[in-house]
């Protein structure tokens, strides 16, 4: 009798419920033990960042990191580890030399990073600065004929405001409560129909890129007349932190973009003040870049832990994050962090010898920084095209996709993307992690990363709520996105929670409930 | 009658008193108007920073800035504007080229600054990193013979802590209240006698520089075997902010110091992790520096507004700050700010046509960063040597010296350096500036800059209490100490308050009261 009693007790303990949702406490404990005591997450992150270098889409660095991840997961015993092409990406690019310094009115080393996909200087050039003070194309015309051999500087008068707010932060209880209390808008409050949304989107795109805007005109002048470089600045960056992204098209047939160099705010503004005071400024510029068009395809890294339930093993639970980065650092928080925790989550599950009912599939996306290209194309190739919403056979087999791409901060909860039917399920799954700071389930959604590719075709795709730490101030798309800015304890917590979510999704009797299928977006509605 | 009444009223208004101390409200109003409405302080700062470049002691940059300041003040009508030699400084040095990049395991531009007074690389060198893991000279001996052609990296394992505290701050009321409430220690609580103080100081110096410490041994190995460079880091700096100072002796007869390069924390730690993992790291290093020994004297910039009272015109009120800086930026907050506000203060007074009873003398010191050398030698040459305390005739003629050297933050009050007799005087003089945030008079003292040279020989020397802003986190001795980090409104406030203090000191019937004369320090007690 006693024995029977104990068994019953264990059974109850093993499957405590929150709104009837099962939680396998014993497995959670094992995952926690492996994830906290034997973590490999920082070692994985080291290999993706320090040891590999930048992972720009299409670059040799990304290919190297992708192969490392594939091989590593194969070593752990995952199956079907592969680099899966998703379609045409574009030109590869890498930086091979960058020396940029001020030589007049005195010598000063500069903090400078050529933007991606821009060409080099063709050797060392000494370039006087051409100060452009033009509000529009008419005023710019006065500078015609003056670009040759110059470093082009568009005048600014920004004032730097000292940072009286800390660079790093974590969610407060109040902020989390607000997220938890979020209610879905009533139909009448919701934005108008899809056609209206599309019109708004297209109008935004026109404002952003269309027309003869000044930056494009300057680029044309620089190209035609042979400027040495265009100089750029991002006032979001200061004190040596620079936000650096792309310098133009990476399409295979596109002409090489003129050299465009992102400078430290303080250096750029010094040039503006000097040039404006009539003091000649010259730069030494010696930048070498290399394009590659041998293979213009994009690749995602995929690997699996095969399902074991005869009825469910063809169904899949996916987890992932994008592995591509920008160029000026090694993309540690954006998004080696996401890849490292996802790889660590499958390593934990594999190490524990789990026998998931459904197949667990990890995917590390490329081309995310250029518009979620890797995940969008993967979804289109495997599940559905949001333009037509013609569903492929595997569309119904995916229970959910879980994504990490908000930096190094630990998980504080999860966005349901407006899916009310998963709220109680996720609340139950988070219960074992309240002591680790993760408890909030919000009906709110979040955008900007790869879960949207799934959500866009009606497959449950989720992104977790993460503490920001220094993501928005110091690391996201900056030259400071390095391994040092990763928080080891946070990444362990993420790995453990993701492993548990993925495990429970794989073991659940039913797939996760879905929202209504979205309407077809049409060919013009590809971006979301 | 009415007219007489008005005159009396004006007389009362013009000389309101706080503990009987006169305040010339009309002059204060004029100073405020000129200082806030017609300020030139940011223009002066621009010339000292952006337009001039770094102002390392002994460098061509310092000479240029000093001459500019001298000529500018002469233009304003100040008399006796001159570069006054104060004695032997040492070698001049300037940076003529600095290209430092990682070339293996992948290419990465680095944020790097050669330390001052180190030699160059003699052209472009590709240097593999030699990782040193040695706790002492015995362990270091194992690396003997391996330095040639290498970049020397001493292993560290620091973890970067995100900044949950804002970089910039201002004094809170509570902090100011605490300063105001400061009481001088009773004689029994005071530190022991001068001999004891000297013993402590010498012991500290021994710990800091003496003995066969590891850094000196590595420098010896690097020199003897021909390393390309020693790599350095300061963990106080992060996210692109680097703290960079000197790399060795600047004495005329000293051998050239081996090249020593300060790297961004994130770059240095990346090298440590890579090298520790057995992944070879190589750097391209192309650094050119130039020494000059043609003129090894140090110079201060001095200029005067002559006194007009026949009895008092040989007495002087001094104001100043150091004009020398470190090398990696243009020394905006340390201490172009101090020079700019002091120059602006005399400009305001000259513009207003004041006829001071005593002579007002501004001094912009050099060699401050190497131990208050310019001001200490000036005091020794003109007033007294603290070693002997034999007083020169002018010692009794100085009423006070006012100094600014704590960055760009506005004045919140003044340190009396323990001089109880000036407390009520300064309180009265601050009364017109309470609305500008300046009200605190503290008996506490503050150290580290040029007022100490005066205080050390018993001449009242004062430094103001200033808001820190980003001084300790981002600008003081960093590569980010640029014009952009100056706060224009704060500098205007400082200029105005200093002008008023100097004016009132010049007009006062008596010189400011002095503390007791200090005892002679003896030859070994030169540093304070």
UniProtKB/TrEMBL annotation, chains A, B:
What start and end residues bound the annotated signal peptide? Answer: 1-19
**Which CDD domains did the record assign?**
M28_like
The record's InterPro entries line, in alphabetical order, gives:
CPQ, Peptidase_M28
Record's keyword annotation contains Cell inner membrane: no
SUPFAM superfamilies documented for this protein: Zn-dependent exopeptidases (SSF53187)
Keywords (A to Z) from UniProt: Carboxypeptidase, Endoplasmic reticulum, Glycoprotein, Golgi apparatus, Hydrolase, Lysosome, Metal-binding, Metalloprotease, Protease, Secreted, Signal, Zinc, Zymogen
Tell me which residues make up the Peptidase M28 domain: 300-501
Q: Which Pfam families match?
A: Peptidase_M28
**Where is this chain's protein located in or outside the cell?**
Endoplasmic reticulum; Golgi apparatus; Lysosome; Secreted
Q: What is its main location?
A: endoplasmic reticulum
* Gene3D superfamilies, per database record: 3.50.30.30, Zn peptidases (3.40.630.10)
Under the subunit heading, UniProt states: Homodimer. The monomeric form is inactive while the homodimer is active.
Instruction: Give the protein name, as stated in the record.
Output: Carboxypeptidase Q
């Amino acid at each position: 009798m006693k024995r029977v009693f104990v068994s019953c007790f264990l059974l109850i303990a093993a499957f405590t419920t929150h709104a009837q949702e099962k939680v396998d406490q014993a497995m959670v404990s094992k995952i926690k033990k492996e994830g906290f005591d034997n973590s490999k997450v920082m070692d994985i992150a080291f290999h993706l960042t320090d040891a590999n270098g930048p992972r720009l889409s299409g670059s040799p660095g990304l290919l190297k990191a992708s192969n490392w991840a594939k091989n590593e997961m194969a070593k752990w015993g995952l199956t079907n580890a592969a680099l899966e092409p998703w379609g045409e990406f574009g030109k590869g690019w890498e930086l091979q030399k960058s020396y940029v310094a001020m030589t007049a009115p005195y010598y000063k080393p500069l903090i400078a990073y050529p933007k991606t996909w821009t060409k080099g200087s063709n050797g060392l050039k000494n370039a006087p600065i051409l100060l452009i003070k033009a509000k529009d194309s008419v005023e710019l015309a006065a500078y015609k004929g003056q670009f040759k051999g110059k470093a082009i500087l568009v005048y600014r008068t920004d004032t730097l405001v000292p940072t009286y707010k800390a660079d790093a932060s974590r969610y407060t209880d109040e902020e989390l409560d607000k997220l938890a209390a979020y209610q879905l808008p009533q139909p009448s409050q919701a934005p108008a129909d899809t056609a209206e949304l599309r019109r708004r989107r297209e109008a935004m795109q026109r404002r952003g890129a269309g027309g003869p805007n000044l930056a494009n005109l300057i680029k044309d002048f620089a190209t035609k007349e042979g400027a040495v470089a265009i100089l750029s600045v991002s006032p979001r960056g200061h004190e040596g932190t620079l936000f650096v992204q792309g310098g133009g098209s990476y399409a295979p047939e596109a002409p090489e973009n003129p050299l465009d160099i992102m400078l430290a705010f303080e250096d750029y503004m010094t040039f503006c003040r000097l040039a404006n005071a009539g003091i000649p400024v010259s730069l030494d510029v010696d930048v070498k870049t290399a394009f590659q068009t041998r293979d213009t395809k994009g690749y995602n890294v995929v690997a699996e832990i095969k399902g074991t339930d005869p009825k469910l093993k063809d169904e899949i639970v996916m987890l992932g994050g994008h592995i591509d980065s920008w160029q000026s650092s090694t993309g540690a928080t954006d998004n080696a962090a996401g890849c490292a925790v996802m790889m660590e989550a499958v390593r934990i599950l594999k190490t524990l010898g789990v026998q998931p009912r459904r197949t667990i599939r990890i995917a590390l996306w490329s081309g995310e920084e250029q518009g979620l290209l890797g995940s969008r194309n993967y979804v289109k190739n495997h599940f559905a095209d949001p333009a037509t919403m013609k569903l492929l056979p595997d569309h119904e087999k995916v229970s959910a996709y879980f994504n990490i791409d908000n930096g190094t901060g630990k998980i504080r909860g999860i966005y349901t993307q407006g899916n009310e039917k998963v709220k109680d399920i996720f609340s139950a799954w988070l219960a074992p992690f309240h002591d680790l700071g993760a408890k909030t389930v919000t009906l709110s959604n979040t955008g900007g990363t790869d879960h949207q590719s799934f959500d866009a075709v009606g497959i449950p795709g989720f992104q977790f709520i993460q503490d920001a730490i220094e993501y928005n101030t110091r690391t996201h798309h900056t030259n400071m996105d390095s391994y040092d800015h990763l928080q080891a304890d946070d990444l362990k917590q993420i790995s453990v929670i993701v492993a548990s979510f993925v495990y429970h999704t794989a073991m659940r009797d039913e797939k996760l409930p879905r929202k209504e299928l979205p309407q077809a977006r049409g060919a013009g509605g590809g971006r979301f």
